[in-house]
Write a structure and sequence with these properties.
It contains four helices and five strands, in the order H-H-H-H-E-E-E-E-E. By secondary structure, it is an alpha+beta fold. Among the domains are: 45 residues, no CATH class; 61 residues, CCR4-NOT complex subunit 2/3/5, C-terminal domain (SH3 type barrels).
Length: 159
């Protein structure tokens, strides 16, 4: 009986880890949209360490790491670096809200919790920057009495 239960658990685990079509895609290297002319003495290609997951994990222990993760997430879309940044943000208990396209983190335990949502005070990352040059965003803010509906929670990335 124990073997059957174990086999079922392994089959279920394997089902959730099925290969996806994107698993066979080649990693896309970063290509700037508007390249600038720089002196030849400046680095002309990305450092290989930027693709190393251990680098991103180590960065998570630095004070500046979280801001770097947000920068990579919002300014390197569809890259391996965006994936690594999202993974590290999730490790730091940030949760991505698909409706608002922003990251939230509990500021305190929620006051209300049920199967559909939780309500409480959250820290969120305001990634908007005003066109007039004034710094209205790109910072962490607190939202009280926020209702985080679970159906907007991005949970495809398992940490």
């Amino acid at each position: 009986m124990h073997d059957q239960i174990y086999n079922m658990q392994m089959l279920e685990a394997a089902f959730y880890k099925l290969p996806q079509p994107k698993d066979s895609e080649r990693v896309k290297s970063y290509v700037p949209r508007h390249p600038a002319v720089t002196p030849p003495s400046y680095p002309q290609t990305q450092a290989p360490i930027i693709d190393n997951p251990a680098f991103w994990e180590r960065l998570g222990f630095e004070a500046i790491g979280t801001d770097t993760f947000f920068f990579s997430f919002y300014y390197q879309p569809n890259t391996y670096q965006q994936y690594l940044a999202a993974r590290e943000l999730k490790r730091q208990s940030w949760r991505y809200h698909k409706k608002y396209n922003t990251w939230f983190q509990r500021h305190e335990e929620p006051k209300v919790t049920n199967d559909e949502y939780e309500r409480g005070t959250y820290v969120y990352f305001d990634f908007h920057i005003a066109e007039d040059g004034s710094q209205h965003g790109w910072c962490q803010r607190i939202k009280t009495e926020f209702t985080f509906e679970y159906n907007y929670l991005e949970d495809e990335l398992v940490v």
